[in-house]
Design goal:
The protein contains no helices and 11 strands. It is mainly β. Strands 2, 4, 5, 6, 9, 10 and 11 form a 7-stranded mixed beta sheet that branches. A 4-stranded antiparallel beta sheet has the order 1-3-8-7, with no helix packed on it. The N and C termini lie far apart (40 Å).
């Protein structure tokens, strides 16, 4: 079983920074990609940032130049550095992982529990 543990959310003022972390707690895991989606009540969940096993990254247009995603493959961990935060970034952020585990090694998606990010003065 794969479990994703998220941390780093909180309340910050506009222009502030937060660092989100996500750890996949699996002893054997072949990770295809990790990242974060975010969602506000009544709205559709949207991709924020994604990083693949080959270190290719994808960002939501609204966060380019402000957010940076990184990963540590040996520790099954990803980080999202969020700088120059804006009120529009307020949402619940959900860690995402696509990977393969024994015995079938079929591609499966997993979600973290979510962490609240609030940007307000």
């Amino acid at each position: 079983q794969v479990q994703l543990v998220e941390s780093g959310g909180g309340l910050v003022q506009p222009g502030g920074s937060l660092r989100l972390s996500c750890v996949a707690s699996a002893s054997i895991l072949d990770i295809n990609a990790m990242g974060w989606y975010r969602q506000d009540p009544g709205k559709q969940r949207e991709l924020v940032a994604l990083i693949t096993h080959s270190n290719m990254t994808t960002y939501q247009e609204s966060v380019k130049g402000r957010f940076t995603i990184s990963s540590d493959n040996a520790k099954n961990t990803a980080h999202l550095q969020m700088n120059n935060l804006k009120p529009e970034d307020t949402a619940v952020y959900y860690c995402y992982l696509a990977g393969r585990t024994p015995p079938t090694f079929t591609l499966t998606t997993y979600w973290g529990q979510g962490t609240q990010v609030t940007v307000s003065s």
